[in-house]
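Page 37, top half.
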Amino acid sequence: MNGKRPFAMKMDPGAAEVIAALHRAGYKAYAVGGCVRDSLMGKTPHDWDICSSALPEQVLAVFGEARCIPTGLKHGTITVKQSGGLYEVTTFRTEGTYTDGRHPDAVDFVTRVEEDLSRRDFTMNAMAYNDEEGLVDPFVGREDLLVRREIRAVGEPVQRFSEDALRIMRLFRFAAREQLGMDGATLDAALMLRGNLRRISAERIREEMLGLLAAKQPGRWMLPEIFGVILPEAAGDEAAFAHARRMIDAAPAVKEVRLAALLSGAGDEARAIMRRLRFDVKTIDAVCALVSLKDFAPETEAHALRAQTRRFLGRHGDECARHLCLLRAAQREAGEALPALDAFLSMAQAVRAQGICCSLKELAVSGDALIREAGVRPGPALGAMLAQLLEAVIDERLPNQREALLEAARAEECAE
């Protein structure tokens, strides 16, 4: 057991039972990685990974095939169903070369947990625990995490990042999330090898970037050198990127808002950037709407503001309005001289509370009714009529009442 004081980890019941079952069968087993790190920091772990001296076929024999999912046999991983949860059990292993810079070409099963921990990325993730032995910490991860408060690579940093370039992104994500510093040699190696991030799939870069953006105030760890590789469009202009980082730090950790802050200078390129990073269509549309609205100015006269707000809600929706107000607050805190959106948000809330029509789907008359009862022709003429009626309702030239709208449509048809 390492560390100045004994560490008693509160085990998840299912994970504890999996470890106990392996112990009863004569194998070594430990909780490992993130769950140990989080427990040391006083957090409740959400994922429980287990490493064991048992080979995959031996894990299958202990728990029975009905309770096992062979999720990663090639790399020694079996997922065990226990107490209503799923627990990955991976055989102690070392790894060979990483030809593709992401996955080991081969793995070798070993018998000691210390050998397994030696292949991991950072010392704070290279700790294991069970109730019998306590904390197994051969690389002094506990001290790095709780005393030095810095992230340090296991072993030789250049080797760790050469094996898997995604570890460079993980370095900054962990540092931002836990508000940690970085060991000098580890940071130097990450910067030296940052070009290897180009070999990592867009999906993996996206997920690590989102993890970084979700931290409390991640700007300090969003180094231009790193973002110049993964997002050159955003980091190419040093002053603009510094401003974007200030906005991100000022904004709440809402994915769409922080992405819009990051891409605020990209303009029309934002959509292409997000497509390259394989974002889903809903997120792309939401973020690009915010980017296009970053200079939005509310009307000052009450009637005009009401009409503007209704058009906004009909076109962009309630969530976009809320997100835009969060983005604007961050812009102002970052030093932009833009009007506040308090009046706009209050108007949006009032419009919604009163159930006021803002869109075609809220219009009191349907296209079918216009065809049947007002003689409007199907096709472009129908769409134009609906849009015209909606504008009249929003401008409060017509009430949103079925008969009034039909009468206006009939009059328009007769005029033509």
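Page 37, bottom half:
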Amino acid sequence: MAQWRIEATRQDSRCVGCGGRIVRGAWRFGTPTKTRWFHLECAAEGAPVVFPPFAAQAASLLKKAKPVGAREAPRADLVRALATPGDDALPVLADLLQSCGDPWGELIALRLQGEDELAAEHLRKHQVSLYGELLRRDVAWRNGVIVSAWFNGKPAALSKGLDRLAATRTAGRLEDLKLEGPTIDAEVLRKVSAAAPNLQRLELSGAVAGLEALELPALHTLRLKVPFGASLRLRAGPHAEVDGLWVAKLPSLRALRLTTHLPLTIAFLDRLLASSLLKQLEWLDFEDESNLMRTLDDAGLRYLLAGKKQLQHVKAMWVERSGRALAPKELAAAHAFFEARGKRAIKLARPREEAFDEVD
């Protein structure tokens, strides 16, 4: 059974309640057996069942002067530096963090100086502080900042992973996120918007619903991978599962990548061509992951070509494995339309996936 207690912090740890740092010398509440620690101010809310017996002692300690090194409110300039996209703000962030004694600052500095081995050792030494409750296999780093994360499982597991992500300060500049599960619902997508406000690329693999909950002002690329069962529903009737895509708040979206086990219906393509979202796009992909998949069939390709006026502004368009049954004149017309604008009507090779610079 876990032994809960109040003690002065002997070494830096992280509060699982607010996600903030508990610096050496500050009072904390928790249990060493499961390495779960809370600031005294967070303990009542974070551990409501076990905290009451300690409430009087905690109140007494909080009335007194805090030990040297106690937690301070986050500095506004540090928060602004954290939210600024791009690597040009990282030196400023590293200086601010180091001035607060935060090991994250040294990690960023080591990576920017090219000291990769020292950075990897520093990251392993300060795992509790820098990873929080995230698992190492779930994230990737670049220049001392978590830039990519991926979670899989049922909605409850996805929500838990996103909660951990939101509570981890080193993931505040997250750029890429991948979620995979049998169902990805609106509640999960609301947590995506809250946990990763700077997100640039998002991949959702599963039966997705509630896309209207997405509110990601910096998102550039959205990939939807729809499994067989959900593909059947897309073909069966109204596309309630994905209709939220047309009203999601994605003002910076420029690339939409679609993968389904069954061909998209003409009704779906009609909605796409009529949507205001299409007017934003510079890149439109219809991808297949295997010979058993047909995201876009020849009928769908013909329909897109018939509506090519709506596609005039799209700079690049990739279509996999379609067009094989088109008549030679139709195929020539397709190539003429797409190649004249830097597009390709048919693509049989998969694009190279982006690699992330992991330090550990």
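Margin note: The chain has a mean pLDDT of 80.
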